[in-house]
């Protein structure tokens, strides 16, 4: 049944490979179960209820991706968007968390409409092929940077923005050991190398105090959603602040999702002959459903996760990978202590080496054509430096349009790209 539904042979994969890939994706993004409640609870939201909302929203959205789009991508409340929700909208602008949830809910509805009318798919398909390849490379650098930062290998530095962390700290040693072990396993072509590396680093972290071993019950009933579920405030939706907040949510979610779909698909060789993402409309539908349902449950914007690349690197090619990840998110509701014990130092190896895998499409970029190569380079470099997939795409697209216009090649710019460039300029002023 799984073979027929997901067409495993056609996609040159197997049940074992897909399940392994799904577990790997989950392990690299399970941190969101702890981090999202921690960030959103700063607004006064119930932290325990947020854990349930996070797991449910991620599980539901990922299952929609698995069963409707049949693609190996996982979704969860997005990092960055949750910080904007908590620290800008609520703590910065003084609005209630109920108001912020209302903005997320409206965003989800708008995305459902845009997806139904193929507008989001139109944007995905309008991105030039050279930029699609560069998005993959940029995400590779970005995800590796995230892994190194989470493990403490790279830290903040007042003088140079970033610097090398304490190389003698237990977390750094566990992370570096995990990277070396995983790299050796990959070279030896050991199946499940990324997952083995995560487990080995988690175990190695126990005696160092890096891994927090649960001392209570491993099985527990999920906390109630009652304090945050369906808590909307529509009293101030017709205000300029709502427009700005809504635009920010829409913009970041739109291009984070588009970037992840395009970048990971490019790396996996899943783009069709025209460079389009297969079943992009269905994938964007899953993203829209996730955001809408997530707001109802009580969490911030749900988006497609760049960590999906770790599952793809393990061979995941179909919705069975996402199905596995989605089921694990739902199981996490009952086994939270087990899933939350994996430290950031243990997942660093997977993220760093997935970043390496994501670099390969760079050879497909035509570096002899500067109007294609320079925007590709801008896209690549801006993603890690701005800590945002969306901003990398914005700067890449703007440079593409500007260079084409001023070198007499404006005819190569699609109408969609031209409209997006204008919107991007307006976004900077807003």
Key phrases:
two-stranded antiparallel sheet, globular, two-stranded antiparallel ribbon, about 65% helix, 4 strands, about 425 residues, mainly alpha
Overall SS class: mainly alpha
Shape: globular
What percent strand? Answer: under 5%
Looking at how many chains there are and whether they match, the oligomeric state comes to: single chain
Global Rg: 21 Å
User: In sequence order, what are the helices and strands, one letter per element?
Assistant: HHHHEHHHHEEHHHHEHHHHHHH
Distance between the termini: 51 Å
Mean pLDDT: 89
Strands ordered across the widest β-sheet: 1-4
* Total tally of structural domains: 1
Strand tally is 4
Largest sheet: 2 strands, antiparallel
Q: Share of helix among residues?
A: 55-70%
Give me the number of helical elements. 19
Model regions low in confidence, pLDDT < 50 over at least 5 residues: none
Characterize this entry briefly.
By secondary structure, this protein is mostly helical. Helices cover 65% and strands 3% of the residues.
Topology:
Layout: H1 2-6, H2 15-29, H3 32-40, H4 47-69, E1 75-77, H5 81-90, H6 97-116, H7 119-126, H8 129-151, E2 154-157, E3 161-164, H9 170-187, H10 193-208, H11 240-268, H12 280-297, E4 302-304, H13 308-313, H14 319-331, H15 336-339, H16 344-357, H17 370-386, H18 389-406, H19 415-429
Antiparallel strand pairs: 1-4, 2-3
């Amino acid at each position: 049944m799984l073979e027929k539904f997901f067409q495993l042979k056609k996609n040159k994969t197997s049940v074992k490979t897909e399940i392994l890939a799904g577990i790997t994706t989950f392990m690299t993004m399970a941190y969101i179960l702890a981090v999202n409640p921690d960030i959103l609870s700063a607004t006064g939201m119930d932290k325990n209820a947020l854990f349930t909302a996070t797991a449910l929203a991620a599980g539901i959205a990922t299952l929609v991706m698995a069963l409707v789009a049949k693609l190996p991508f996982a979704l969860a409340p997005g990092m960055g968007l949750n910080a904007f929700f908590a620290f800008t909208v609520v703590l910065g602008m003084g609005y209630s968390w109920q108001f912020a949830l209302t903005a997320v809910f409206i965003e989800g509805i708008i995305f459902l409409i845009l997806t139904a009318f193929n507008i989001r798919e139109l944007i995905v398909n309008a991105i030039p092929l050279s930029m699609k390849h560069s998005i993959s490379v940029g995400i590779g650098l970005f995800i590796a940077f995230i892994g190194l930062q989470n493990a403490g290998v790279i830290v903040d530095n007042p003088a140079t923005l970033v610097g090398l962390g304490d190389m003698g700290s237990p977390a750094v040693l566990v992370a570096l050991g995990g990277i070396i072990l995983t790299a050796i396993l990959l070279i030896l072509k050991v199946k499940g190398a990324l997952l083995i590396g995560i487990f080995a680093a988690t175990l190695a972290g126990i005696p160092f105090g890096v891994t927090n071993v649960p001392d209570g019950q491993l099985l527990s009933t999920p906390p109630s959603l009652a304090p945050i579920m369906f808590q909307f405030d529509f009293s101030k939706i017709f205000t300029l602040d709502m427009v700005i907040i809504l635009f920010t949510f829409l913009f970041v979610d739109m291009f984070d999702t588009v970037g992840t779909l395009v970048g990971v698909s490019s790396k996996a060789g899943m783009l069709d002959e025209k460079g389009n993402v297969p079943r992009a409309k269905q994938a964007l539908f899953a993203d829209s459903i996730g955001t809408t349902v997530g707001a109802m449950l009580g969490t911030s914007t749900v988006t497609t996760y760049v960590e999906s690349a770790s599952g793809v690197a393990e061979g995941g090619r179909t919705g069975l990978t996402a199905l596995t990840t989605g089921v694990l998110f739902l199981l996490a509701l009952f086994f939270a202590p087990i899933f939350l014990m994996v430290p950031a130092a243990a997942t660093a190896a997977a993220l760093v080496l997935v970043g390496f895998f994501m670099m390969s499409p760079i050879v497909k970029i035509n570096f002899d054509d500067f109007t294609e190569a320079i925007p590709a380079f801008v896209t690549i470099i801006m993603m890690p430096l701005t800590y945002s997939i969306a901003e990398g795409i914005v700067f890449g697209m703007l440079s593409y349009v500007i260079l084409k216009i001023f070198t007499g090649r404006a005819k190569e710019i699609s109408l969609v790209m031209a409209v997006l460039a204008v919107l991007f300029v307006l976004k900077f002023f807003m």
